Amino acid sequence: MTPAGAATPAPAATPAVEVTNLSVTYDSHPVLLGVSVQVGPGEVVGVVGPNGAGKSTLFRALVGLVPLTTGTVRLLGGPVERGRRWVAYLPQREALDWDFPVVVWDAVLMGRFPHLPWGRRPGAADRAVAARALEALGIADLRDRHIGELSGGQQQRVLLARALAQEARVLLLDEPFIGVDAATEATILALLPRLRAEGRTVLVVDHDLVRVRETYDRVLLLNQRLVAAGPPAAVLTEELLRATYAGRLAPLEAMVGAEGTEGGP
Amino acid sequence: MSVLQELAAALGYAFVRQALLAAVVVGTVCAVMGSFLLVRRWALLGDAISHAVLPGVAIAFLLGWPYVVGALVTGLLTALGIGAVERHTRLKQDAAMGLLFITAFALGLAIISRIRSPVDLFHVLFGNVLAVSRGDLVLTAVSGAVVVGTIALLYKELLLWAFDPVMAESVGLPVRRLHYLMLLLTSLTIVAALQAVGIVLVVAMLIAPPATAAMFSDRLHRLILGAVLVGVLTAVTGFWLAYVFDIASGATMVLVGAGFFALAALFAPRRGVVVRALRRRQAAAQARLDDYLKALFAEEAEAPTPVAALAARVHDAPAAATAVVRQLARLGLVTETPHGVQLTATGRRAAAQRVRTHRLWERFLVDRAGMPWDQVHQAADRLEHVAPRRLTEELARTVGPQATDPHGAPIPTAEGEVARPAEEHLLSELQPEQEGTVTRVEDEDPDVLRLLEATGLVPGRRVRLVRPEPDGVRVAVGDGEIAIPRRVARSVYVMPGR
Prior knowledge:
By secondary structure, chain A is an alpha/beta fold.
């Protein structure tokens, strides 16, 4: 994959995602507090933090699914309303009704819907884009299968294929590696450099610190506040991880211990 | 006069033709709308709205308005009310709906009973398709056309809204407005169906045909087309039953609809209860045959295996074993002799295949999945029966060239050949000071396997019998000596020699 030390592309003139002083509150419980971050085109960014740190909320705020208490979000240099159809938000797999009567092809073709005017059906060009997306994820042979018959990894690939069909310029992947097989993990990991090369922006919630270290250009450590942001080697230090996982150290120590963090005690 | 002639004669009456047409329209509209209610899991909402239509009909009559208007207004108010109750109280949605629609329904009953209206309460509640007037038919057709037309026009948006509301909202579809549009269309559908099936029973017409079609369809548009087919068939059959036997038409339609659903739920080719049960039974029977083949194969006997011994090996009752053996014999896989059972050449090849699959799974589970070797036998037993047969050779490629399973037993080749070790003794039968190499161990008992692993008595290790002891043997493995219980020593096979 990517060498961890590879030069991180500096956020370009117009960041793909631009969050300024973002706070989100659910039922008067703060979930995100004063988060500011910019992510440029072609950046593949890992989002790391404990459960309840607001990682999913950050993604939901980026596509306008939750009201912002303070702050602003800009997508592709414009307001959310203008940029959101170029953003693919992939929630955790369980969020979808997999019994719904659609086959793989139908689900992937839905990626084209945001670009079609009301009442217009997908045309030949849309079907070609969707077909390429199926190929890219290696699920062309599952085209006519009902989505409920697929394995967890195959379902994840369907969602990614849908994001490719959407030609999304920003992809928000919420724990895409949970409950998938090794082949799917490899497919997703192989897809990331391709997306980077195409200038797309990818944010991935990921709990596996080893993979985080090897995979992402930049890492956001999040726990309500943005604890740190930077290249993995600079950010994945024991000190910063402790600050991120404050009060939830037991699982962290196991992780840190297992892989031997640089900058350890 | 035969029933057919009676029906043909009935078609001569204008009111019958009108009623039939109304039934067809109602069947279609309910099926289309109901498909969305079904997949969006809104069935209860449809029920709530339909009940809440009653006070609207009553009030409209009081004010001298067309009852459609009243029905629509209350239907919508209920839909909005449910949302409000849900947002502002701690009641769950089903409780909120239940409370609201029964209250509205009671209000409607109160009004109608007080004003002694010409509105026939029975017809509003339970429908009478035979009483459909020309005006009613026009109303039904127009509301139906609006519902079906809107859904056809916005099919793409509604599909996304129904399947993945989160994506719909995140890419900027106005999901709230779509939500209320669908509530409006649901109210309109109920109005269209009011005369034919009545407000109490309409939910059955909304849900039964789509639920029936769902047993057969993997895609929403097919589900809708199937639901329309079933819905029209239901409405028309219900109509004729109502006409011929003089029964309330709403009741006959619902009963027919439920009947179709029951048939589909039982006999649908992939999802039907009967087919699934048959398939399970078939799989269980096949698994049993496989187990017998493997057991016979493991006996490796030139002589026939007595049925009782075979039964003991597969943990089956002797009587049951006799039946299975008879079946295997019919399939030409074994021959029965007075002394027992023996594999035929075909049977031996089939058995070798099953054993190959089992041992490859064990290999895979240990080498690739990292499972401890004491657990893989049971896991492989399940996997070999549920995994498709063609996976076997895929597995063989994945685990690479392997002569034996993790317990040392040889893996038969794809052609059914199996290498037999030249000479094998049970560890318990070695002579004192005799040495040898562990070739394989029995794989069924996890306790024994854990013990063997702990003592190092695994395939490939050198072992020397020190001396027999009262309840077992003392052996030298590696640098140490250890006492092994007899039961465990009888699970280890050794090839003697230096």
